């Protein structure tokens, strides 16, 4: 029993790190690196002091009379009991405040890029605004240029959520009626994952997102593509799907820019086909998953705002998913 | 001391003897009852009435039970004259077969039932409205009186109650025993009550019997056919429409749907002004995005024939259906489940506003431009 417990304790940290794409121990952003450094300084420093205290306690209980007398002397108690913790805690506090930049102001984004993320039950509405004020919506995926600090404005449309991309920064609450600003600076390109970190209702655990850090040119290309209208359907099936999308009323909640679908209740689907997941990290993004989501979303993510659409024939589902998959 | 001991042993001996006697009596009763049932000596035939005492006991049981069930029932306003007329037409389809024409002798087939279906001319003097509701809604065991075919549709029972109250109040002549003859041999105008859609839904010459009934003229044929199929399958609950759809074949459904879809609806008479329905128009055209209500217009503008056209439908019908969805009653079908999600996000005020707007909206004519 004891051995099994020890084994479990040994495995636990390894489990925490096994998904490197969502781990504070694998920093890929300046803010997360600072948190990582702080964590290790605190953990190692605290560990050394802990071992020292245990050693002194053992000596005090088991050591010879001379050592014990020394430990109970007034200079030792003043030094190790009062002076040492005061100095160490003060230094650590100042260090912690400095490294986390407490009170520092968010640096303005260099090119006027603004990103706003709104937490909704249970997905992320992401709004990009460029320097000219052009704005577009996407969902459940945050793209960032590598090496540039970007201020992300966090809000909520309903209840308190918390935005947490552990590889990039610490978590920050999204509070209805308030805008919190979080600075993210991706230090290397790549895709990582984030998660709502404040319980927000039944499907809270199913509210994830991807962060895609890209070199500046790639990011600009993505911005241009994403800001534009939807590509026209490329096949006959996709054309039928596009017509069905409108006639079945999907556009009441979803926008596909460049078509009559202008709904704002659910995620913008203009470039859904280019995203890495559907249902806020629930399913891979392919035609099979699209079908599954349309028909069965209430089982995949119970009580989400989209009704289950059990009204389509198999052929219609093929057409719809072909259309959506093609919205790159 | 010794006397007290003798006292207590006397008492326990008495109790033991009493216990034994009770057991013997119970045993005899059980055995006798078993023998009575097994022998088949009791005449269960309808040709002979119960013993007087049995009849009296059953009547007590029935009336006490009906009275107790009716305690929690809130009687709605039943004064709308159309309500009693709608109830009369359901009486014609569903009740008249056994209960006959109020105030007139019953067909001997039914007088030979035990108990015989009572003449309902006087039903309202024997029972309060809430008690009549309970009897029609839940039926009566061992009498042949069925429960309402869609038990969740308590709302459909009230028109029948209203009719029974009216018959009692104004006399049996309020019930026209003759079935309106079909104008021509058109679908929906048959001579049998179940075939005669026009009695309640009207057509291009006759108006709706009541505001609780939807207008069918000019409706999409695909939607009408789907509605009838769902009634027939029992996935759209209605004690009025399920028995009617049960009688219909696929071909009859298709023919009827085409017939009504091809008619031009009468213009609804509405004294509302444009500004009265502005709030409802906003909801219909734009939804209420803050609370997740999508625009009704994105489905109900005729682009998809599976979604019904709503312009010109009576507000009471629309509100009633929205209320069903809000209560989760029409959510069994794929389409119903979608609408249930939306209806549950509407406040009662929003449901009323959008219903009033639609009732005011002129109908699209001959593929006209709609709202």
From TrEMBL, chain A:
<keyword id="KW-0732">Signal</keyword>
<dbReference type="Pfam" id="PF00116">
    <property type="entry name" value="COX2"/>
</dbReference>
<keyword id="KW-0408">Iron</keyword>
<dbReference type="InterPro" id="IPR045187">
    <property type="entry name" value="CcO_II"/>
</dbReference>
<feature type="domain" description="Cytochrome oxidase subunit II copper A binding">
    <location>
        <begin position="110"/>
        <end position="225"/>
    </location>
</feature>
<dbReference type="GO" id="GO:0005507">
    <property type="term" value="F:copper ion binding"/>
</dbReference>
<keyword id="KW-0349">Heme</keyword>
<dbReference type="InterPro" id="IPR036909">
    <property type="entry name" value="Cyt_c-like_dom_sf"/>
</dbReference>
<feature type="domain" description="Cytochrome c">
    <location>
        <begin position="236"/>
        <end position="328"/>
    </location>
</feature>
<dbReference type="InterPro" id="IPR002429">
    <property type="entry name" value="CcO_II-like_C"/>
</dbReference>
<dbReference type="GO" id="GO:0016491">
    <property type="term" value="F:oxidoreductase activity"/>
</dbReference>
<dbReference type="InterPro" id="IPR009056">
    <property type="entry name" value="Cyt_c-like_dom"/>
</dbReference>
<dbReference type="InterPro" id="IPR001505">
    <property type="entry name" value="Copper_CuA"/>
</dbReference>
<protein>
    <recommendedName>
        <fullName>Cytochrome aa3 subunit 2</fullName>
    </recommendedName>
</protein>
<keyword id="KW-1133">Transmembrane helix</keyword>
<keyword id="KW-0479">Metal-binding</keyword>
<dbReference type="InterPro" id="IPR008972">
    <property type="entry name" value="Cupredoxin"/>
</dbReference>
<dbReference type="Pfam" id="PF00034">
    <property type="entry name" value="Cytochrom_C"/>
</dbReference>
<dbReference type="InterPro" id="IPR034236">
    <property type="entry name" value="CuRO_CcO_Caa3_II"/>
</dbReference>
<feature type="signal peptide">
    <location>
        <begin position="1"/>
        <end position="19"/>
    </location>
</feature>
<keyword id="KW-0812">Transmembrane</keyword>
<dbReference type="GO" id="GO:0020037">
    <property type="term" value="F:heme binding"/>
</dbReference>
From TrEMBL, chain B:
<keyword id="KW-0479">Metal-binding</keyword>
<keyword id="KW-0812">Transmembrane</keyword>
<keyword id="KW-1133">Transmembrane helix</keyword>
<dbReference type="InterPro" id="IPR050597">
    <property type="entry name" value="Cytochrome_c_Oxidase_Subunit"/>
</dbReference>
<keyword id="KW-0349">Heme</keyword>
<dbReference type="GO" id="GO:0009055">
    <property type="term" value="F:electron transfer activity"/>
</dbReference>
<dbReference type="GO" id="GO:0020037">
    <property type="term" value="F:heme binding"/>
</dbReference>
<feature type="transmembrane region" description="Helical">
    <location>
        <begin position="21"/>
        <end position="41"/>
    </location>
</feature>
<dbReference type="InterPro" id="IPR009056">
    <property type="entry name" value="Cyt_c-like_dom"/>
</dbReference>
<dbReference type="Pfam" id="PF13442">
    <property type="entry name" value="Cytochrome_CBB3"/>
</dbReference>
<keyword id="KW-0408">Iron</keyword>
<keyword id="KW-0249">Electron transport</keyword>
<feature type="domain" description="Cytochrome c">
    <location>
        <begin position="82"/>
        <end position="168"/>
    </location>
</feature>
<feature type="domain" description="Cytochrome c">
    <location>
        <begin position="275"/>
        <end position="362"/>
    </location>
</feature>
<dbReference type="Pfam" id="PF00034">
    <property type="entry name" value="Cytochrom_C"/>
</dbReference>
<protein>
    <recommendedName>
        <fullName>Cytochrome c domain-containing protein</fullName>
    </recommendedName>
</protein>
<keyword id="KW-0813">Transport</keyword>
<dbReference type="GO" id="GO:0046872">
    <property type="term" value="F:metal ion binding"/>
</dbReference>
<keyword id="KW-0472">Membrane</keyword>
<feature type="domain" description="Cytochrome c">
    <location>
        <begin position="185"/>
        <end position="264"/>
    </location>
</feature>
<dbReference type="InterPro" id="IPR036909">
    <property type="entry name" value="Cyt_c-like_dom_sf"/>
</dbReference>
